[in-house]
Design a protein that fits this description.
mainly beta; L,D-transpeptidase catalytic domain-like; 9-stranded mixed beta sheet; 2 helices; disordered N terminus
Length: 191
């Protein structure tokens, strides 16, 4: 799960257990921020944090999570994904974010990653494929914030894909999402 920031030819592993410095030949993905000010979320329609979200759309190729209210995009966020962001999740440890239609199946206010919304992965299709391959499909895929010790990283966390397959936002962003996303909310994760 380490977030790696390049510093010259070395990289700082921010989310590893040792918080150590190591040399990295090439980061997985580097993305520009949304604006010079570092703003991440964008209002598309009138976003009301008191109104529950109808559905969530994650577009992996653009590292974008969109919340829908009343069937319209109400808010979008840039996100960090699994360290191997291209392709569907096949097995435990492949560092990929799954693709498909899921639901938010649980909420964890005490997550080590500052609040977490559990995604209903693996579904029956992912379990069947993993069984056919003789591997575990993995699990514990979440939408979450940052660990409290690394919250200072803020928006910079999304400059690299650093999770083991989860969808990560800043703590402020997950707080906003947390207040509007109930258990059972549909989530569509696209390539």
């Amino acid at each position: 799960m380490p977030l790696t920031l390049l510093v010259g030819t070395a990289a700082l592993a921010l989310f590893g257990t040792a918080d150590s410095v190591r040399t990295v030949a090439k980061p997985t993905v580097v993305r520009p921020t949304v604006s010079a000010s570092g703003a991440n979320s964008t209002t598309m329609a009138a976003f009301d944090p008191r109104v529950r979200v109808d559905s969530i759309l994650v577009e992996k190729s653009s590292h974008r999570l969109s919340l829908f209210q009343g069937g319209r995009v109400a808010r979008t966020y840039l996100v960090a994904l699994g360290q191997q962001p291209v392709g569907d999740k096949i097995r435990r440890g492949d560092m990929r974010t799954p693709e498909g239609r899921f639901r938010i199946e649980a909420r964890n206010p005490q997550s080590k990653f500052h609040r977490a919304l559990r995604i209903s992965y693996p579904d029956s299709a992912h379990r069947a494929r993993a069984r056919q391959l003789g591997v575990s499909p993995g699990g514990d895929i979440m939408i979450h914030g940052l660990p409290s010790r690394q919250a200072w990283v803020g928006a910079a966390h999304r400059d690299f894909d650093w999770t083991e397959g989860c969808i990560a936002l800043t703590n402020q962003e997950i707080e906003e999402i947390w207040s509007t996303v109930p258990v059972g909310t549909p989530i569509n994760i696209r390539p």
